[in-house]
Q: What sequence folds into this?
């Protein structure tokens, strides 16, 4: 396949940036999208042009490092991560537009690379169970209903890639935040800090400058791990019941 | 900042207000529709006029109606606040975006739909409510009691084809607004459950078609009757 | 140099308990006076950083990714072993110990492995308490699955994403300490050198990957939790960023590198599809629980398959060769990884490979689906099947998957003693970065176990022991040693940027990978290794004269990052070849073609090679010196590993 790529180039955070067009030829259908970009970068380097910077690491759809807004959707046309998107999803001669995640809370670092540390700070606000190493009860001491454990696992699958924020018209981080709040609210181990966690994580999410949820469902539709917006409802529930009943004034 | 204002200032708190006021307005629509349907009774407006009179003089309804105005106002104000905040969350937009792949049109355009509905409400209030309250109205006498004959104004308005068209089209927008708003309010309140959410979705869908359709039916029927 | 493994005296089962009592303790009030640096935030790094911070030490945690949650531990799929014996099927600490020693082909340290088996049970408790959503039975208790190399069900799992869930657990503990102010995080920061003062590790030099700033960080102890070096093969199941740089710089500062040639080739990976391939994708070994591995019985039939004249489903039962079940009736498809990989290679070498390249065998779920129903198989492996479908475009519910072995894990690593300290005082290596627990071959679901054992349960004791014996002296990054190291790093960057040659970094990386895979991969021989050594030397010379690294240091520069890593991989590659050439025997992942049984199994030479080969860097251009740590087996009998 031969393709035209329209790629966002931006030297650094303070640079204004803009689109640049590139041509790539002889792209195999079996290549992953990132391997196609590798081909482009090899070409650019050989020509002495700065290669296109993009985040990627595991290339097996689990680390959450790859991003890219491809042809109008996060991670491209399929509900998967960009590294698991293969060129068989595109047609010969197509023009592909590649942009970074766009959100105030995800500033562009360079080209297609963005800073997603806001997610780390949301987790730091309370996305954990406060147990120290050692001195914990036997793993089988508290049985957990299989359905509940499975629901917690479904929420826990979030890879923190930020596609939910990228897809949302409000750049809202509700799906990300609610996945963690849900996981720990469902499990008995998360009960002790349940209220404080919901309050603190929501507050941090707001402080980071993410938008509000308008329940469009775009996040769920684009999430490569299929995290359900029922988690958002659960977080709302957790938050409202926490603010009226917790001891935190 | 007290915990109350802190909560109401959070994105979730603002959403909560949107959902609660929205649900109230949905309830109001049902009551309003029940009253309006009396326009279709062929008694030359008697039931409707009596109903309008009783509504205007019942102290409980009075309180509720002021509440209703307040809720519309809140719904509008908070939607503006949230929209502004949401816009700020993405200062640089995408060059190419295909949101139709991941969400419905109405869910993404609640602001536009809401603005249209607000204009509709203002026109509607000016045309009927204002006239009923402060205008010079003819009267009608039923069983010895004198009533304001609001039916006359309504039927006059609905004999105008442009007015009817405006009404019917706006009810279409109401349908789209409700098609997202109804279920969305429940989601915001956290009422999402494997068993009940599908039901809420279905009821919401039905509601967003039936209620605006019935509202639109009234001017249409009355217009046809004048022909 | 005498390598002192510092293994405590006494019976095997009591060593760790006694040692924990004997180690020196740091008084709680004094802990806050110590700084500890943790490089890498995978299972070992995140768990160590969190646990040390909980104790009260001041921790700085570094990772090259944009968030600690992205370390490659996240990609581990299948599960984590623990000797809980929840299934009542005869498991015990000793059995896990025995399986691991035997699985490692008797090339690991008894004491370390036994401790690993002992603390394995604590890991599961810890993770559950953190909210890790392990799979459960309907009664609400934890579920287990079986895994290669074991005859008991002792593997705990969370769908096919166990590594992810365990890492997110450790990451959450780490995040809690960041919020507490006890851990300072340095994401997008790469370690460029270790700094030693008076022979002791006192800090590191880093490069900020966004700004290019070269910075020094001082500490009383430095923990390298930087994973393995499988990417020396270019194609591996490692993440693109996984590298040897931290370990290699430590090696060049005096830390010994042990058994570098022990490489694990994982049998169930998705076969290579073409030259463009940038990495290989593994599918959990757990697939072998229900999937049956086979190739056509005849070469003719395989040829027809390769030409796509027939499909797998056209081949009748009696024309299929379930070669693992045939050759190893008692373990069948669940033989250890090295055995499974090697046999797949033999089949393909015989010409019975099943895809266009001839380098793939089938993994078939037809019978399992018939037996248990599609929904059961979907529940167990759904995400793996989806992944396979996404990558290959084929549907594994309808026809068999194709698999081929790929580089997956490196058992070798920095030499450490029982305390996980390298021979450089104050410098520790944890997890895959060290060499200690898996011998010549790692069993499935043991990497997660080791990473977390080291981080949660070993290092908090052993680091304390070291710190208690050294004063909490004030640290100064203006010390000459830091300045010298910084200058060396800057000079090297300048050098890389100034070559301005003709070939890209990836070009060299691919060539290195091919040399390593061809001559130091699944099967090795003296002739090939000797050839490889010369080729690597040539490659190195060419790299330093003809590599093209664009851009500047003072920006995000991914070519420069890669160039550093590949330069180190080239040097490591040479040492791996040396090590493979030195070891005139076959054991585990190290298979020397000259040393095999008549049936083609690995032939160990316990008399001459029951030792850890630890290599010392002696300077640029010099051959490295070999030091031997003899392996003493008091509790197991060395036997020819048999899974028949």
A:
């Amino acid at each position: 396949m031969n393709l035209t790529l329209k790629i966002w180039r931006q030297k650094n955070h303070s640079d204004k940036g803009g689109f640049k067009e590139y041509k790539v030829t002889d792209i195999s259908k079996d290549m992953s999208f990132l391997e196609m970009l590798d081909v482009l970068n090899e070409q650019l380097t050989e020509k002495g042009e700065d290669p296109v910077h993009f985040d990627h690491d595991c290339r097996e759809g689990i680390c959450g490092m790859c991003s890219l807004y491809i042809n109008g959707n996060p991670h491209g046309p399929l509900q998967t991560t960009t590294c698991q998107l293969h060129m068989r999803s595109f047609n010969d001669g197509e023009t592909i537009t590649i942009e970074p995640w766009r959100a105030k809370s995800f500033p562009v670092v360079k080209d297609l690379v963005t800073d997603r540390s806001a997610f780390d700070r949301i987790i730091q606000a309370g996305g954990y169970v406060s147990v120290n190493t050692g001195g914990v009860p036997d793993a089988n001491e508290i049985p957990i209903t299989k359905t509940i454990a499975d629901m917690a696992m479904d929420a826990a699958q979030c890879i923190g890639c930020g596609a939910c924020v990228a897809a949302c018209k409000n750049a809202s981080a509700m799906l990300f935040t609610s996945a963690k709040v849900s996981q720990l609210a469902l499990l008995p181990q998360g009960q002790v800090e349940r209220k404080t966690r919901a309050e603190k994580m929501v507050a941090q999410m707001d402080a980071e400058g993410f938008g509000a949820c308008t329940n469009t469902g775009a996040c769920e539709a684009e999430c490569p791990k299929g995290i359900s917006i029922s988690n958002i409802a659960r977080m709302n529930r957790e938050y409202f019941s926490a603010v009226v009943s917790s001891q935190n004034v | 900042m007290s915990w109350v204002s802190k909560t109401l200032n959070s994105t979730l708190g603002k959403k909560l207000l949107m959902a609660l006021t929205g649900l109230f307005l949905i309830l109001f629509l049902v009551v309003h529709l029940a009253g309006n349907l009396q326009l279709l009774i062929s008694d030359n407006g008697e039931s409707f006029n009596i109903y309008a009179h009783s509504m205007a003089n019942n102290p409980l309804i009075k309180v509720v109606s002021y509440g209703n105005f307040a809720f519309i106002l809140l719904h509008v104000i908070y939607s503006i606040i949230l929209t502004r905040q949401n816009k700020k969350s993405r200062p640089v937009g995408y060059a190419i975006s295909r949101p139709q792949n991941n969400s419905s049109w109405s869910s993404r355009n609640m602001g536009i739909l809401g603005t249209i509905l607000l204009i509709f409400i203002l026109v509607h209030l000016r045309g009927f409510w204002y006239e009923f309250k402060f205008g010079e109205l003819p009267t009608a006498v039923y069983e010895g009691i004198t009533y304001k004959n609001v039916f006359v104004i309504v039927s006059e308005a609905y004999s105008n084809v442009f007015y009817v068209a405006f009404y019917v089209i706006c009810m279409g927008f109401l349908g789209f607004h409700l098609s997202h708003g109804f279920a969305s309010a429940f989601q915001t309140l956290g009422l999402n459950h494997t068993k009940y959410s599908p039901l809420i979705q279905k009821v919401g869908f039905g509601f967003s078609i039936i209620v605006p359709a019935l509202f639109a039916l009234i001017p249409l029927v009355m217009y046809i009757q004048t022909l | 140099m005498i390598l002192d493994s510092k293994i405590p005296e006494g019976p095997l089962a009591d060593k760790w308990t006694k040692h924990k009592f004997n180690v020196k303790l740091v008084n709680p009030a004094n802990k806050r006076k110590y700084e500890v640096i943790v490089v890498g935030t995978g299972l070992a790094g995140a768990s160590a950083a969190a646990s040390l911070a909980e104790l009260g030490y001041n921790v700085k945690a570094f990772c090259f990714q944009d968030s600690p949650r992205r370390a490659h531990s996240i990609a581990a799929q299948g599960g984590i072993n623990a000797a809980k014996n929840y299934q009542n099927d005869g498991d015990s600490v000793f059995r896990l110990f025995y399986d691991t020693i035997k699985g490692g082909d008797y090339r690991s340290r008894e004491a370390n492995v036994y401790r690993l088996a002992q603390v394995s049970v604590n890991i599961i408790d810890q993770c559950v308490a953190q909210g890790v959503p392990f799979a459960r039975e309907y009664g609400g208790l934890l579920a287990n699955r079986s895994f290669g190399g074991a005859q008991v069900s002792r593997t705990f799992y969370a769908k096919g994403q166990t590594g992810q869930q365990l890492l997110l657990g450790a990451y959450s503990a780490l995040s809690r300490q960041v919020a507490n102010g006890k851990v300072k995080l340095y994401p997008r920061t790469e370690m460029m050198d270790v700094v030693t003062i008076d022979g002791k590790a006192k800090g590191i030099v880093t490069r900020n990957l966004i700004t290019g700033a070269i910075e020094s960080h001082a500490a009383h102890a430095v923990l390298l939790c930087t994973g393995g070096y499988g990417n020396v093969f270019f194609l591996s199941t490692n993440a693109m960023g996984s590298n040897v740089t931290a370990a290699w710089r430590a090696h060049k500062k005096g830390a010994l590198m042990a058994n570098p040639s022990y490489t694990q080739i994982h049998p169930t990976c998705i076969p290579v599809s073409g030259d463009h391939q940038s990495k290989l994708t593994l599918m959990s070994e757990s697939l072998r629980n229900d999937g049956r591995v086979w190739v056509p019985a005849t070469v003719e039939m395989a040829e027809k398959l390769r030409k796509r004249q027939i499909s797998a489903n056209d081949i009748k039962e009696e024309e299929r060769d379930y070669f693992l079940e045939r050759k190893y009736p008692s373990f069948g498809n669940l033989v250890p990884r090295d055995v499974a990989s090697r046999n797949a290679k033999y089949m393909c070498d015989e010409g019975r490979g099943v895809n266009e390249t001839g380098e793939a065998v089938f993994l078939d779920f037809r019978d399992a689906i018939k037996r248990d129903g599609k929904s059961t198989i979907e529940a167990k492996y759904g995400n793996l099947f989806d992944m396979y479908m996404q990558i290959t475009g084929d549907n594994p519910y309808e026809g068999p998957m194709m698999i081929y072995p790929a580089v997956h894990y490196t058992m070798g690593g920095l030499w450490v003693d029982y305390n996980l300290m390298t021979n450089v005082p104050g410098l520790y290596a944890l997890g895959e970065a060290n060499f200690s627990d898996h011998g010549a071959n790692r069993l499935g679901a043991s990497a997660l176990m080791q990473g977390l054992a080291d981080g949660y349960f070993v290092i908090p004791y052993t680091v304390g022991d070291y710190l208690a014996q050294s004063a909490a002296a004030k640290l100064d990054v203006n010390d000459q040693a830091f300045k010298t190291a910084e200058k060396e790093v800057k000079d090297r960057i300048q050098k890389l940027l100034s070559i301005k040659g003709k070939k890209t970094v990836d070009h060299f990386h691919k060539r290195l990978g091919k040399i390593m895979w061809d001559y130091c991969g699944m099967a090795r021989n003296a002739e090939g290794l000797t050839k490889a050594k010369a080729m690597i030397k040539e490659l190195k010379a060419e790299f330093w004269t003809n590599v093209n690294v664009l851009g500047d240091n003072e920006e995000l520069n991914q070519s420069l990052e890669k160039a550093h890593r590949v330069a180190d991989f080239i040097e490591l590659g040479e040492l791996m070849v040396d090590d493979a050439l030195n070891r005139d025997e076959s054991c585990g992942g190290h298979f020397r073609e000259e040393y095999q049984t008549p049936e083609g199994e690995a032939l160990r030479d316990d008399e001459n090679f029951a030792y850890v080969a630890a290599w010392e860097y002696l300077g640029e251009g010099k051959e490295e010196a070999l030091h031997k740590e003899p392996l003493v087996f008091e509790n197991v009998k060395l036997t020819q590993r048999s899974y028949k």
Summary: The longest strand of chain A covers residues 3-9.
